[in-house]
Specification:
The protein is α+β, with helices and mostly antiparallel strands. Helix content is 32%, strand content 23%. Helix 3 packs across helix 7.
Length: 405
C-alpha cells in the first residue's frame, strides 16, 4: 500500500512539473510568433525604412511626390548621387503619360532657339543613357524633325535663322526635297537635328515598376495635413526625411504650400491614327506634328486649350486635329486612340523650381510645360545642387521671382 501511495505522489509531482513545462513552452511560442510577425511587418516596409532593432525608423534623404517626368528626373538625380528616396503618387495626373514625348531645341513657330538648349541636351542625353542601362530598355529614340515649308518666304526665314550662332547647330542649311507618299510639300522641308522622342507612357510605367521592385514607391494620394516640419527635416506619417520634393504637375493646385504660384495649365489633345499608305520615317512638323510609331501607327497633335482644365478628350479637339491632319496628308486613316491631359504651363513659360518661402525642407519641381523631356533632367540637377550644395538657382526658374514684395 505504501508503495502505491508513493507512486501516486510521484505521478502527481511529475504531472505538476510537466504542466509547468507546457506553460513555459506555450509562452515561448507566443513570444516567437510576435517576434516573427514584427519582422514580417518591418520587412514589408520600403527597404530604406526597414529597421533591424528597436531603434526608431531611420531618416531618408527625400520624399518625392509625383512620378511623372519631373518626379522621375529628380528621383534619378538623387539615386545617382547615392541618396535614399521614397516616391508617393496615386497616378491622378496623366500629362506625362499622354505627352507627345518630343524633344526639340528650336521653337519652330518663331525659328528661335530654346534657352540653354546645348546644356539641356547634354544633360538629357547623359541622363537617358544611364536610365536605359538601369531599366534595360530603349527610351531615347533619335529622329530628325522636318519642318514643312508653306512658302518661299518661310524658306528664306529658315535660312536666315540658320546663320545665327545659337541656331546653327540645329537648323540644317540643306533644303529637303524628298517626296513622301500622301504628303504634298511643293516648297520642301527644313531639317532640325539633335531631336527625337520618347514613349513617355512606357517610360512612366517602366520606372514605376522599377520603384516598386526596389520598394521605393507608395501608391496613395498624398495627404498634406499629415506633413509635419521638424527641427531637422520633415515627417510624413511614419517616414522621416531631410527634404520633400513636390513634382505633381497640374495637381499642384491642391497643394497648400504652392497653389498660389501661377501654374496655368494648358490642355492638350492627341490622336493615334493608323495610316498604311503614309510613308514617313521622320517627325513631321506642320500645323500639327506627325510622329511615326511603327506598324503604320502615327501620333498626331496637339491642341492647346487654356480654359478647359480636365483630362477628358473632346469632340472639338478631335475635330480640330482631323481638320489639320487632312490639310497635310491625302491618304485614308483610322483613329485608334484619343488622349487628353493638362500640361503644367506657367505664364512666363519658365519652370517652377525652388524652396518654399521660409521653409527650407519643402521644395518644388514643376512647370516643365511641353518640354518635359528636355527640361526635366536639367531642372532636377539644378534643384538637387541647390539643396545639397547651395548652388544658386537661375533667377528665371527660381520661384522667388513670384515672391510678394
Amino acid at each position: 500500500m505504501k508503495k502505491i501511495c508513493g507512486i501516486i505522489k510521484f505521478l502527481q509531482k511529475f504531472y505538476k512539473e510537466l504542466l509547468l513545462i507546457a506553460r513555459v513552452l506555450f509562452f515561448i511560442g507566443i513570444c516567437f510568433n510576435l517576434v516573427y510577425a514584427k519582422s514580417q511587418l518591418l520587412t514589408s516596409l520600403p527597404a530604406c525604412l526597414q529597421v533591424t532593432s528597436n531603434f526608431p525608423l531611420q531618416m531618408i534623404d527625400y520624399i518625392i511626390v509625383g512620378s511623372g517626368l519631373a518626379g522621375i528626373s529628380f528621383s534619378e538625380v538623387a539615386l545617382n548621387n547615392n541618396k535614399s528616396i521614397i516616391v508617393v503618387d496615386n497616378n491622378s495626373q496623366n500629362s506625362s503619360k499622354i505627352a507627345a514625348g518630343l524633344y526639340n531645341p528650336v521653337i519652330l513657330k518663331r525659328f528661335s532657339a530654346v534657352g540653354q538648349a546645348k546644356e539641356h541636351l547634354f544633360i538629357m542625353n547623359e541622363f537617358f543613357s544611364i536610365l536605359e542601362k538601369k531599366l534595360d530598355c530603349k527610351i531615347d529614340f533619335k529622329m530628325p524633325i522636318l519642318r514643312r515649308f508653306f512658302s518661299i518666304e518661310e524658306q528664306n526665314n529658315w535660312f536666315s535663322a540658320s546663320d545665327k550662332a545659337n541656331l546653327t547647330p540645329y537648323l540644317s542649311t540643306n533644303l529637303i526635297t524628298k517626296k513622301y507618299s500622301s504628303i504634298d510639300s511643293p516648297f520642301g522641308y527644313g531639317e532640325v537635328v539633335q531631336t527625337g522622342y520618347s514613349d513617355t507612357a512606357f517610360l512612366v510605367a517602366k520606372y514605376k515598376d522599377y520603384l516598386i521592385k526596389n520598394q521605393l514607391f507608395i501608391e496613395e494620394a498624398f495627404d498634406y495635413s499629415l506633413l509635419q516640419e521638424e527641427e531637422i527635416g520633415i515627417r510624413y506619417k511614419d517616414i522621416k526625411a531631410r527634404h520633400i520634393i513636390f513634382a505633381e504637375g497640374f495637381g499642384m493646385h491642391a497643394n497648400p504650400y504652392f497653389r498660389e504660384l501661377p501654374l496655368d495649365g494648358t490642355k492638350g489633345e492627341i490622336l493615334v491614327i493608323k495610316a498604311p499608305l503614309l510613308d514617313l520615317d521622320v517627325i513631321l512638323n506642320a500645323s500639327v506634328f506627325i510622329l511615326p510609331m511603327g506598324n503604320n501607327l502615327f501620333k498626331v497633335g496637339a491642341t492647346y486649350n487654356w480654359t478647359d482644365k480636365t483630362d477628358t478628350p473632346t469632340e472639338e479637339g478631335k475635330a480640330e486635329l482631323i481638320e489639320r491632319l487632312k490639310e497635310i496628308i491625302s491618304c485614308d486613316f483610322e483613329i485608334v486612340e484619343h488622349f487628353a491631359g493638362v500640361r503644367p504651363t506657367v505664364k512666363d513659360r519658365k519652370p517652377l523650381v525652388g524652396t518654399y518661402f521660409n521653409h527650407q525642407y519643402i521644395h518644388i519641381l514643376n512647370g516643365l510645360g511641353t518640354r518635359g523631356l528636355m527640361l526635366g533632367p536639367a531642372m532636377a540637377k539644378a534643384l538637387f545642387e541647390n539643396i545639397e550644395y547651395q548652388v544658386p538657382l537661375d533667377k528665371t526658374i527660381d520661384i522667388k521671382r513670384f515672391a510678394k514684395k
